[in-house]
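Budget justification aside, the reviewers requested a transparent look at the raw inputs and outputs of the sequence design task funded under Objective 1. We therefore reproduce one unedited record. The lines immediately below are the structure tokens for a 226-residue chain.
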């Protein structure tokens, strides 16, 4: 047998780590287990990334690129609130597909503790180009929302930060099983919370409710087309 190709080693290592997170959780992330899952040696792990913290930074970036690609599948319509709710549902789906990866991306500790590296340039969340490329879909939709007149005039980045906090707060609690008493937490918690948020920004309640229902239908059409 010939030697394995090494030009794609970083991608193989990242994908192996993503798979281990999904299947076994963060306790499985060790140099030897990632190397074994990728068919490479531990020296390749250290040679390309320097260590597990740097590898996990690359894994988080991979997660944000996947999230950005999912956001890009949400079409731009003439209803920015519907678009934003479809993206919120998309983010929820991505989180449920690999909760441990989601934890890593957002520095959460519901299932494990992920600490950013001390170097500010190597932090896992909110600083990397991969994160910014994903988040720009949210800020662009918030800009359309402000331009539509359905929200009081304010910086779209501020609205995006508030919405980002609302959506990820919901997802975090849902993943931690805090909504077990609800038969349909999306319909009973997430959707009305989004409506209340929109009304707080200045929209009319009836119009906000219609937009969120349209966003749910838009999201369903995307999922059915996958």
């Amino acid at each position: 047998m010939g030697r394995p190709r090494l030009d794609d080693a970083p991608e193989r290592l990242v994908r192996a780590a993503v798979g281990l997170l999904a299947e076994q959780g963060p306790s499985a992330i060790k140099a030897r287990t990632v190397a074994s899952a990728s068919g490479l040696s531990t020296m390749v792990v250290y040679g390309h990334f320097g260590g597990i913290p740097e590898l996990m930074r690359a894994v988080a970036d991979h997660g944000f690129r996947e999230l950005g690609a999912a956001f890009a599948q949400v079409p731009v319509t003439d209803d920015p609130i519907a678009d934003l709710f479809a993206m919120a549902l998309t983010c929820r789906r991505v989180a449920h597909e690999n909760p441990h990866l989601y934890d890593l991306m957002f520095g959460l500790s519901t299932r494990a503790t992920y600490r950013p590296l001390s170097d500010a340039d190597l932090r896992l969340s909110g600083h990397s180009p991969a994160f910014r490329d994903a988040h720009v879909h949210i800020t662009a939709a918030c800009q359309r929302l402000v331009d539509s007149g359905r929200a009081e005039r304010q910086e779209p980045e501020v609205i995006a930060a508030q919405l980002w906090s609302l959506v990820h707060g919901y997802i975090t609690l849902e993943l931690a099983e805090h909504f077990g008493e609800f038969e349909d937490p999306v319909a009973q918690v997430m959707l009305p919370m989004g409506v209340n948020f929109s009304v707080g920004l200045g929209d009319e309640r009836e119009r906000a409710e219609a937009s969120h229902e349209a966003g749910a239908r838009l999201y369903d059409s995307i999922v059915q087309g996958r």
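The chain has a mean pLDDT of 90. Residues 52-72 form the longest helix (21 residues). Computational costs for records of this kind are itemized in the attached budget.
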